[in-house]
Automatic annotation (TrEMBL):
Designated name of the protein: AraC family transcriptional regulator
Boundaries of every HTH araC/xylS-type domain copy: 236-334
Superkingdom in the source lineage: Bacteria
UniProt keyword Protease, yes or no: no
This protein's UniProt keywords: DNA-binding, Transcription, Transcription regulation
Keyword Transcription tagged: yes
Family matches, as SUPFAM superfamilies: Homeodomain-like (SSF46689)
SMART domains: HTH_ARAC (SM00342)
MF (Gene Ontology): DNA-binding transcription factor activity; sequence-specific DNA binding
Length: 339
């Protein structure tokens, strides 16, 4: 029999299980272990530790008693992370972001989970385990220079500079190097501070290997060509959709779905046709539109920023100055003197 639960149901069952002593929680130093069972739902084990500012590591195991459909309808926090699947399988639909994806042994994903609702499909008797690295970009990448940050995936750069964060999901394959690092994490022989240092070094190594795979995919995508006139028309259509939604642009996944291309083909093709990425194109267009609005004098700086889709006035000022040499207020005053 397949059970169906919502997040509200889950939270209620969790609270009842804690009150009835079915869930135990132990914390020692920087480590926390939570384990137990939700009657007639599942058994679980979770190990969690914050190994440095902006970086946590979690090992999670769960096994369901019946087939289960879990409607995740209250995911309201930004979360950046990497998830590496060690055993089991689950099928997940991220509404408005991906079609059904199978998350299983040998795969991992990178994500920015921005209030994306999910439906998860679990099978009875299939013990699922994973290692999850949660990253808080503002803390983890603090102290990196602009040139280094330019090498990061766009979904992380957006979080760092305060621009509007777009939901993101990309699945990759666990390489042999990643497997060795994951094994070292699971078999870490140390305790206390030495364990924390060991886990930190291995977690950073996993992140590095992910970035390496990301960059290799980017190079591969740029070497491929889009030759179909139909595909080129769809890329131009994608551009028009972006420019008509400055205040709330769709994610790359959603944009690809709306024009009928897969996300890699859209990303690759957009760069070939316009010489830059879709969201760099959008970024530059926003700034040019802002410049035109400031010249017209019909709006003040804050109104212009929000009109073209910048939620952060400080980031708008920084981006404008980098492109035009003056901050928006100075540019506005200069234009008014010239009238």
């Amino acid at each position: 029999m397949t059970k169906i639960i919502t997040d509200t149901d889950w939270k209620q069952l969790w609270q009842e299980s804690k009150e009835n002593g079915n869930i135990s929680r132990q914390s020692k130093g920087f480590e926390t272990i939570e384990q137990g069972n939700l009657p007639e739902i599942c058994t679980f084990y979770t190990y969690w530790t914050e190994i440095r500012n902006g970086l946590s590591i979690m090992k999670h195991e769960i096994e369901f008693i019946d087939d289960l459909v879990w409607i995740r309808d209250s995911l309201d926090n930004y979360r950046f992370g990497l998830s590496f699947f060690l055993s089991g399988k689950v099928r997940i639909e991220r509404h408005g972001l991906t079609n059904d994806t199978d998350e299983s042994v040998g795969k991992y994903y990178s994500e920015c989970n921005c209030d994306i609702k999910e439906t998860e499909y679990w099978k009875v008797g299939d013990k699922f385990s994973r290692i999850y690295l949660e990253i808080e970009p503002q803390q983890f990448f603090q102290g990196f220079g602009k040139e280094e940050l330019e090498q990061l995936p766009i979904y992380l750069r957006q979080a760092l500079i305060g621009d509007q964060v777009q939901p993101y999901y990309h699945q990759g394959k666990i390489t042999s190097q990643m497997r060795r690092v994951l094994h070292a994490i699971l078999q870490c022989p140390h305790t206390g501070l030495m364990k924390q240092m060991c886990l930190e070094s291995k977690a950073v190594e996993l992140i590095t290997l992910h970035f390496q795979q990301f960059q290799e995919q980017e190079v591969h995508d740029c070497n491929l060509t889009v030759k179909s006139l139909s595909d080129i028309e769809k890329i131009y259509q994608a551009k028009e959709i972006l420019l008509s939604n400055l205040e709330n642009p769709p994610s790359l996944m959603e944009l690809a779905r709306r024009v009928g291309l897969n996300d890699f083909k859209l990303k690759r093709g957009f760069r070939q046709v316009f010489g830059t990425s879709a969201f760099k194109y959008l970024h530059d267009y926003r700034l040019e539109k802002a410049r035109q609005l400031l010249v017209s004098g019909e709006m003040n700086v804050e109104e212009v920023a929000f009109k073209v889709g910048f939620n952060s006035r400080s980031y708008f000022a920084l981006a404008f100055r980098n492109k035009f040499g003056l901050n928006p207020k100075q540019y506005f005053q200069h234009c008014q003197k010239s009238v």
